[in-house]
Amino acid sequence: MGLHERRQREKENIRTNILDAAFSLAKTEGWASLSMRKIADAIEYSAPVVYDYFENKEAILYEISLNGFNCLHIELLKAQREHDAPDEQLKAIVDAYWKFAFKNKEYYQLMFGLGMQCSGKGMMKEEFSSFQDMLYDCTYEIIKKSGSNPDNACHMSHALFSAVHGLISIMMMRNDDIPSTMNKTTLDETVSAFIKSL
User: Fold this and answer.
1) Of 11, 43, 49, which is closest to residue 24 (Cα–Cα)?
2) Nearest Cα to 72, choosing from 114, 133, 156?
3) Quick check: 41 and 120 in contact, CB under 8 A?
4) With b meaning 16 or more CB within 10 Å and e meaning fewer, what string describes 51-77?
5) 187, 189, 192, 196: CA torsion to nearest 10
6) What are the angstrom distances between the C-alpha of 131 and each of 49, 73, 128, 178, 190?
7) Residue 32: what pLDDT?
8) pLDDT (average), residues 152-178
9) Cα(first)–Cα(last) distance of the chain, in Å?
């Protein structure tokens, strides 16, 4: 391996270590307490080294949130591919989204700004809207199949996204006084009622 390749690999390793340390700190201390100094201390470098790789904390949060959206996108695609019928795809996609949110709370909170500022404003990429896009596609196909007006698909799918995201947000922000089984039941009933209404 040449000198250039070795230096490039070292840079990539430091960048990865910065992101890993930031995510690890967020898991133990919360996103609000994250700072460039804490990240530098965690990887045993000086703060200027961290600034060499990321302009500020928001740039680090953006990269981590993008990784979260990529992971979510993969889970949604897996769920979708398990079914052929659009109504079954819709149920599977919503269920995968729900499971991702609670299995990856730190990602979800950062991705959607729960209890903090949402990262990546003005820098949205394709994966950021994959859930909404998949809901729309399924909704459109269900409406078309039922003979209803497909022009309503955008409005209807946005309403479903709002309901799903709202239930998750309520559970994450008030998880002490709301049973998880109640919200999951509410989610399942909401999706079933939504499909019947199309």
Assistant:
1) 43
2) 133
3) no
4) eebbeebeebbbbbbbbbbebbbebbe
5) -130
6) 36, 7, 8, 25, 17
7) 86
8) 86
9) 60
Closest to 168 measured CA to CA, from 94, 117, 118: 94
Question: Distance between CA atoms of 156 and 32, rounded to whole angstroms?
Answer: 34
The mean pLDDT of 174-180, rounded to a whole number, is 63
Question: Nearest 5 degrees, angle CA 116-CA 123-CA 75?
Answer: 75
CA distance 40 to 42: 5
Environment class of residue 181 by beta-carbon count within 10 Å: exposed (0-12), middle (13-18) or buried (19+)?
exposed
Tell me the pTM: 0.87
CA atoms lying within 13 Å on the CB side of residue 95 = 15
Confidence of residue 5 (pLDDT cuts 50, 70, 90): confident
Residue from 161, 168, 154 nearest 113 by CA: 168
Alpha carbon distance 48, 37 (integer Å): 9
Q: How many Å apart are CA 23 and CA 26, to the nearest integer?
A: 5
3-state DSSP helix/strand/coil % of the chain, to nearest 5 = 80, 0, 20
